[in-house]
Amino acid sequence: MEHEAFPVGTADILLYLAAAGVVVPLLHRFGTGQVTAFLVTGVLLGPHVAGRLAESAPWLRILTFEDPELLERLGGLGVVFLLFVLGLELSLDRLVALRRWILGLGSLQVLVTGGVIAAIATVFGNDLAGSVLLGLSLALSSTAVVMQLLIEQRRQTSEAGRIAFAVLLAQDVAVVPILLLVGLLTGLAAADPWGALAETLALTVAALASLLLLGPRVIRPLLRLASRAGGREVLVAAALLLAIGSAGLTAGAGASPALGAFLAGVLLAESEFRHTIEADIEPFKGLLLGLFFVTVGADVDPLAILPDLPLVLLSLAGLVAIKAAVLVGLGLAFGLALPVAVEVGVLLGQGGEFALVVLALAARGGLLAPEAARFVIAVVLASMLASPLLARLASALAAALRDRLGRPPGETPELPPVAEQAGHVVIAGFGRVGRTVARLLDEAGLPWLALDLDAARVAEERAHGRPVHVGDAGRPEILARMRLEAAQALVLTLDQPASAERTVSAARRIAAHLPIVARARDARHARRLLELGADSVVPETVEASLQLAGRTFETLGLPADEIRLRLDRERDLALDPEAD
User: Fold this and answer.
1) What is the block-wise mean pLDDT of the chain (580 residues), using blocks of 10 residues?
2) Contact between residue 131 and residue 371 where contact means Cβ atoms under 8 Å apart
3) Which residue(s) pair with 399 in the sheet?
4) How far apart are CA 308 and CA 16, in angstroms?
5) Alpha-carbon distance 257 to 198, whole Å?
6) How far is CA 442 from CA 318, 433, 448, 464, 562, in A?
7) Contact of 167 with 348, CB cutoff 8 Å
8) What are the respective helix, strand and coil percentages of the chain, to the nearest 5?
């Protein structure tokens, strides 16, 4: 009876939530990356560690995942959301700005590294399909781990950081055809391989054509309707429906569900809902993707790997050496300085989370022997655990090479910045006042981005080519996606005092020294915004009164200097914190 009231699947989910809320933050506090923390948690609480110990200590069963298949199915949704968010991030402007490094250096890195590793894999007795998938999967690095390390070390805007970002972006894009290749090769392993291949290709083309042709006509109108009908909650539900529905469409065609989610994200990348959807889906993606990594870790048997530990470490060293050598050679061919090429090569020497996805799917489809997949997964896991060490080694090697060559760290010619926008003004609220501010900024030749909660207003402005997005400026994650830390100023035109105060507080947490100019309802509200961190505040009632008084003084013939002094004194008194 107890079992029926508290099924095993529910117990596993509760255990995962407890681990995500306690164990993972604890490991993260000791410097362990989030992805690595989930992997280690999976290993410790999986059937091969906690499950084995529970044979002699039955109470440990409450700390053991007993239904990995259920967690794996839920974790698959994390991969879907990850690809959906990846599609959202790939705006056309970003791809064009980094095209040389993405299409050139990044694409060649995947192909050349994949080819070298595939050739080595065939020498060790793997068939062609398995060798190709091994090569391509191991050519990928960990976007999550590398970018987090660069951010923590404040190196994401350095030359090496920007080159690494471009290569990682190329690798992330390459995941989509690699996943499609897994599906096609799995079809070729069927009883009627050519029939399965033809059917998969036909259905995939039909599914992709449906998404590309109908998507723009259906997706944006649906999201606008959802935003008008129910606000944020309905918009999140509609975005989840689009991601999962698109994934289901391509999955039904026999291709990877992640491919459909990726295309849905790309179709929304230029929409006004992009930043809001990214921020709202992030918790779902993070939790579910963490669940996937937990299931991967739970599949690792340390005792089974222990006899092969020297070979795992040797393979890890070989993987880093091959990837670094390829990237250094290609980087020099593309005109990078040797210290930069070495730093990027070593930094991206580890395996990545997408390799775990590809290897798991390949093993499930019979394209890789389970033993080979487990061994390679162990190598990838070890390399991800070693990523902080690799990052420090990369920085040290680059510094030593610069000292030896006598060259200061310079900028690579034609290398664009990573940021989509920088040196811009962010306008929070795009009503009458916000539109006036934007028009004046346009006349001055200053770039700007705007946020507003009215989806209909945003759609109308975007129809005229204005960079306005749907989003709540009071949410830090939305402001962060507007590149607030790289902005010149934030202008608040919000007419709701509570919203304005939330926005000033959130902005000040993200960018401590950013100039903030705010519209206030009255003098009391203005003083509150100044206390929260606004630099300059314009109270509507005070300014209207001063304008009227000034015009009156002009009519009465008072000198201009006297009028200005009187108005400035009154303005200072109105904003005095000691005033009533």
Assistant:
1) 50 76 71 72 81 80 74 70 73 64 87 93 85 91 76 70 82 77 66 57 67 68 72 74 78 68 75 74 71 75 80 92 94 88 91 82 80 86 83 88 66 42 81 84 84 81 84 82 84 83 86 85 80 82 68 77 79 59
2) no
3) none
4) 29
5) 18
6) 54, 14, 8, 14, 34
7) yes
8) 75, 5, 25
| Whole-angstrom distance, CA of residue 554 vs CA of residue 38 | 70
Beta bridge partners of 518: 492, 537
Q: What is the DSSP string of 296-340?
A: HHHT--HHHHGGGHHHHHHHHHHHHHHHHHHHHHHHHHTT--HHH
Residue 212, pLDDT score:
66
Nearest partner of 392 among 146, 228, 579, judged by Cα: 146
481 and 499 Cβ atoms separated by less than 8 Å: no
Kindly state the helix (H) or strand (E) to which residue 408 belongs, with its residue range: none
Strand 489-492 relative to strand 516-520: parallel, antiparallel, unpaired?
parallel
Q: What is the structure's pLDDT at 138?
A: 93
Helix (H, G, I), strand (E, B) or coil at 55: coil
Q: Residue 113 has what pLDDT?
A: 94
Residues 23, 318: Cα–Cα separation, whole Å = 32
| pTM as predicted | 0.59
Contact assessment for residue 282 and residue 240, using Cβ atoms and an 8 Å cutoff: no
CB 265, CB 86: distance < 8 Å: yes
Do 176 and 154 touch, CB atoms closer than 8 A?
A: no
Alpha carbon distance, N-terminus to C-terminus of the chain: 67
DSSP letters for 422-443: -S-EEEE--SHHHHHHHHHHHH
How many Cβ atoms are within 10 Å of 556's Cβ, its own excluded? Answer: 8
Report the distance separating Cα 181 and Cα 225, nearest Å. 37
Residue 10 neighbours by CB under 8 Å, 6+ apart: none
348 class by beta-carbon count within 10 Å (0-12 exposed, 13-18 middle, 19+ buried) = buried
- The whole-angstrom separation of Cα 324 and Cα 317 is 11
- The DSSP code sequence of 499-526 is HHHHHHHHHHHH-TT--EEEEESSHHHH
What would the pLDDT profile of 179-225 be if each residue is shown by its tens digit?
777 777 776 555 455 565 566 567 667 766 766 676 667 777 777 77
**Tokens (6 digits) for 519:** 């519209």
Residue 573 CA: distances (Å) to CA of 97, 311, 386, 443, 538: 50, 76, 60, 33, 13
Order of strands, sheet of 425-428, starting from the edge strand that comes earlier in the sequence: 468-470, 448-452, 425-428, 489-492, 516-520, 536-539
> CA neighbours within 13 Å on the CB side: how many for 393?
15
Query: Hey, is 412 helix, strand or coil?
Result: coil
Tell me how far apart the alpha carbons of residues 117 and 133 are, in angstroms, rounded to a whole number: 10
Ramachandran category for residue 239: left, alpha or beta (phi over 0 → left; psi -120 to 50 → alpha): alpha
Question: Which contacts of 440-446 are long-range, i.e. CB under 8 A and separated by 24 or more positions?
Answer: 446/488
- The residue with tokens 């791809």 is 95
Q: Which amino acid is at 356?
A: L
